[in-house]
# Entry
Amino acid sequence: MKEILRTTDPLDITFATALLKGEGIRYYTLGDHMAVLEGSTGLFPRRLMVADEDAFIAEAVLRDNEIDSGLET
# Structure
């Protein structure tokens, strides 16, 4: 599994997952429950994960749609 997006903005996660779903890429979100518990104050980012073999395409999809990954390169 590879992390392709880290954000505190729930709209970024929603948009990114819709794009990946449209491309047929399976994804997993992490941190959803923690974000709800902390009241969406932005202290704990949500993360979007994909299988290693899908990471290159998934990153390209996010980049093409101008979604900042929030990850250090």
Q: What stands out?
A: Residues 3 and 49 are 4 Å apart (CA to CA).
